[in-house]
Amino acid sequence: MDVLAKFRALHVAWIRRFCQSSSSWTLFFKLFCLQFFGDDSSVVLADPAFYPYDLLPSFYSSVFRVWGLLGGHGAFPNLSFFKSGSVTSVDCLSVKLAYSCLCPLAVPHCVTKFRPLFGDLYWSSTWFQVHVMPFDRHVTDFSWLLAHGVVLTADRLRSSFRMSSVPPDCFCGASLETAGHLFFECLLAQSVLAWVQSLLTLAVPSAPSLCLRHVLFGFDIAESTVIPLVFSYLLNLAKHRMWLARNEFRFRNQLPSAVDVIAAIRSQASFVLKLWFPKCARRFFIKQWGASGVIASVFGDTVQFNF
Known about the structure:
Blueprint: H1 3-20, H2 26-37, H3 41-46, H4 58-69, E1 73-75, E2 78-83, E3 86-89, H5 95-102, H6 109-118, H7 123-130, H8 137-148, H9 154-159, H10 179-185, H11 187-203, H12 212-217, H13 221-224, H14 229-252, H15 258-276, H16 282-289, E4 296-299, E5 302-305
Antiparallel strand pairs: 1-2, 2-3, 4-5
């Protein structure tokens, strides 16, 4: 988020309030315009670039500055501004709209961070898959952090936070614990992902082999059209469970086991999907969340799990 643009958007929203309100607070606005410019506020708002608004107190100066950046003009109270090259009424001006106009080219850090390694990714599909299961908030939050590249692996703690006391090696013996290693290259990750891959291939024989891109960002748009939603959730859950197993080693010195991680994934997925079943249409649940019998089957009002 661009903090400066956000503050400016909050300030310029007062222009709409000024046009729509007849409260006494508007008298201060008019008073300052008369005192410093010798013109009524309606005249100043019609052509803000003509006036040295830096003479005003800081808040009013910011309001006029941002109004000028938006190309504000018109006859009071029917003021207008420019949005994507088109004239828009001030009645439509909101903080969100002003923010989008002030920083239309703002790009999330994760986009530029991963572009050299993966090229232009399918971010809209990624965010959909991150939030695919609203009932499992811990899994959603962790998948969001991993897709942004801010999970606190040993490599990130040592390089970004200068915590040289953190041991750099992974529990599997690798010399450096990075996100790519921990969630894809590590022996634990390979075992867990092989289990997910076996279920995925059983449900969709044409499904791609899981790679680092899938682990970090999910399936692309074309792949998502043929792969049931449950596999996006299982992939997210697998990553979260691998992270918990890693933490057990870091803080309790308990060596992770792929068998235990897979058992935990089965248990948690079964519990969450039972809660999710009443929220879905029956046929939709069978196809998308039961993977047509590979993950779960439905008998009456009962869900039976097959994985």
